[in-house]
Design brief:
This protein is α+β, with helices and mostly antiparallel strands. The chain has 17 helices and 17 strands. It has helices at about 25-35, 60-70, 95-105, 120-135, 200-205, 210-235, 350-355, 385-395, 395-405, 420-450, 450-460, 465-490, 500-525, 540-545, 550-570, 575-585, 590-605; strands at about 90, 110-115, 145, 150-155, 155-160, 165-170, 175, 180, 255-260, 270, 280-285, 295-305, 320-325, 335-340, 345-350, 355-360, 365-375. The chain has a seven-stranded mixed β-sheet with strand order 2-15-12-17-9-5-8, covered by helices on one side. A six-stranded mixed β-sheet has the order 1-14-13-16-11-10. A two-stranded antiparallel ribbon has the order 3-4. β3 (about 145) and β4 form a beta hairpin.
Length: about 600
């Protein structure tokens, strides 16, 4: 099985149903470029650079930030020059020159390509992998929490495929990816040479079926071709118009693959209310969690209900559309609605995702598969990241000392932390233990168990990593429990290693974790889960159920005892001052500052 992608100049071409469009020739497209007075012109003196070939020692992200800013500082696109006197809420290719003018002035970075210009090997690969993933049952509905408020079920089913150990978090839910290449014993990517039939053996050993493993490998192979093609499009369509030709990354690390049902089958789809575009399968949004200036590539494929390819040529069929708008409530620039034929590949290039939103408007009869290739933000969110962080925290002197003492069944009082520098180090290490516990519990373990038994059975790759994180959680809990016992002792007798800051870190982290626990407990109890099949409902987690988190009020009482001992040593102040200190001795330093600040404001008002 060989994938090839021939280099060609990107075209803007639409071949759609009679409902919405007509063919747009390349000549007309080029003419619209010349006719638009506000189109950005190439920077003649700019040296066009491909980020992958830059010899600079600085990372691409650092250079982009220095030269072009960030997503939040990216300016809005210009208002459409013809917006005055044009009251259209949205434009389609049927609007001719107006559509082209608006596209080029206000939607630079959106590029779509004619399926005929894409090699048949790419089309065959996508059709094969969509079928393989669907037959393997990987497409699931997600229970998400938009705005951190009410839970809702997505209107589409989806699955995440990407670099081994990658995840993608959206609307409060972490999606765990299926690996698109072979893996080693640590769960990291492994290069295996050979034909497609030789690949995926390690995925089969994890528990994936041969058909599923083949589809995952196909996804990884086609992703490499999409990366190569996107970089070529970036150099022709974006680099000439930006400073020094410095464009964002297109090294796609994952793809979110959606399966969408048409509105004649999916009866609960809602109308797009702002522009009157029709039934929405995916409402207005920006893709989140991505590297600034990174590109997004989307391949979409239409099939009939029986899984056969279709181009929606029937006059009675309403076509699927991609909708775009400027992300500004006050803009006068109209939205765009574009129906694309099956097999189209379209891009949201460079900074397009910073200041634009997109939506998917449902068709009437065809199923729609789409593969959305993205560059996930570096750092948190991968198995390798959290695994390495666990190793670093558990290797610090506090964890090493306490865990060794527990293994050897001996006690330790942390006497090597009694000097000032060591005390400060102890506070930092205790904080890092608490924070890692919180991250493991709420960003990984709870995110895994809330998605149910069926989800865990499908995601064979993640069974061992989740078990590992549960084990780390137990070890950290043992460390913190030991520290808490020392804090309790310090409330009645002086211990050199204990400070106010150590109490404060403990109180703040416990209360933060308690707050998050209440939010998650309410989330799991939501009635929406009763509408799901039993094997799709949240699972109990023995590790968390057995967890014995102490209440912060108890630690505050210990703090009062500790401060009483500290203040009694050489304290010659009068009794009224001592009583005032005693009243606030259970508060952290931050809370005391807040109380003092509030009192000063009140006194000024008086």
């Amino acid at each position: 099985f060989t994938l090839s992608l021939h280099h060609h100049k990107p075209q803007v071409c639409i071949a759609t149903s009679k409902h919405d469009t007509h063919n747009i020739s390349m000549e007309k497209h080029n003419k619209s470029k010349k006719d638009t007075t506000k189109n950005p012109q190439p920077i003649a003196t700019a040296e066009v650079k491909n980020s992958t070939n830059d010899s600079s020692s600085l990372s691409l992200a650092t250079r982009l930030k220095r030269e072009r800013g960030t997503a939040s500082t990216t300016p809005l696109p210009p208002e459409w020059s013809r917006s005055t006197g044009n009251n259209a809420k949205y434009l389609t290719p049927d609007d001719g020159d107006d559509f082209h003018s608006c596209l080029k002035e206000c939607y630079r970075g959106f590029v779509y390509e004619n399926p005929n210009e894409i090699p048949q090997s790419i089309h065959h690969a996508y059709f094969s992998l969509f079928k393989g993933l669907n037959d393997s049952g990987l497409f699931l509905y997600d229970v998400v929490q938009p705005g951190g408020k009410k839970l809702s079920l997505t209107f589409v089913t989806r699955t995440l495929v990407g670099d081994p150990g990658s995840t993608y978090k959206y609307l409060g839910l972490r999606l765990f990816s299926h690996p698109w290449c072979d893996v080693d014993e640590n769960g990291d990517g492994r290069v295996i040479e050979g034909e497609l039939s030789c690949l995926g053996t390690t995925l089969v050993k994890l528990g994936y079926s041969k058909q599923c493993a083949r589809a995952l490998i196909e996804t990884g192979l086609v992703n490499k071709k999409v990366i190569s093609h996107t970089n070529k499009v970036l150099q022709t369509d974006i680099a000439p118009f930006v400073k020094n030709g410095l464009v964002g990354s297109a090294d796609y690390s994952l793809t979110l693959i959606n399966k969408m049902e048409p509105f004649r089958r999916k009866k609960d789809l809602k109308n797009e209310a702002i522009h009157g575009l029709g039934k929405t399968s995916v409402s207005w949004h920006k893709d989140s969690g991505l590297q600034d200036f990174s590109s997004i590539a989307v391949y979409h494929n239409l099939q009939d209900i029986n899984g056969r390819r279709t181009n929606e040529l029937d006059d009675k069929m309403v076509p699927w559309k991609v909708a775009l708008r400027v992300a500004d409530a006050n803009t006068r620039t109209p939205a765009l609605s574009i129906s694309l034929p099956s097999g189209s590949l379209y891009y949201l290039l460079d900074d397009f995702n910073h200041r634009h939103e997109h939506a998917v408007i449902s068709g009437s009869d065809s199923l729609r598969y789409s593969s959305t290739h993205r560059v996930a933000r570096d750092g948190a969110g991968t198995w390798k990241y959290i695994r390495e962080k666990c190793k670093i925290v558990l290797s610090n002197s506090l964890c090493a000392e306490i865990l060794n003492a527990l293994r050897e069944q001996r006690t330790t009082s942390l006497t090597n932390y009694e000097k000032t520098p060591e005390r400060k180090m102890l506070v930092k290490e205790v904080r890092s233990c608490h924070q890692l516990m919180t991250e493991i519990e709420f960003e990984w373990i709870r995110q895994w168990y809330i998605q149910g038994k069926h989800h865990s059975e499908l995601h064979c790759y993640w069974v061992k990593p989740i078990a590992y994180l549960e084990d780390i959680f137990v070890q950290l809990e043992n460390v913190i429990s030991h520290v808490n016992s020392i804090l309790e002792t310090s409330s009645t007798s002086k211990i050199g290693a204990v400070t106010e800051d150590l109490f404060d870190v403990t109180i703040e982290e416990i209360e933060n974790r308690k707050k998050l626990t209440i939010e998650w407990e309410n989330r799991v109890k939501d009635s929406i889960f009763k509408t799901l099949k039993p094997n799709e409902r949240p699972l109990p987690c023995d590790v968390l159920d057995k967890s014995n988190m102490i209440h912060s009020s108890i630690v505050r009482q210990w703090r009062k005892g500790f401060m009483s001992i500290e203040n009694s040593t050489g304290d010659r102040s009068n009794s009224s001052k001592r009583k005032a200190r005693d009243k606030t001795s259970g508060l952290t330093k931050r809370e005391k500052k807040r109380v003092a600040s509030n009192w000063e404001k009140l006194r000024k008002n008086l």
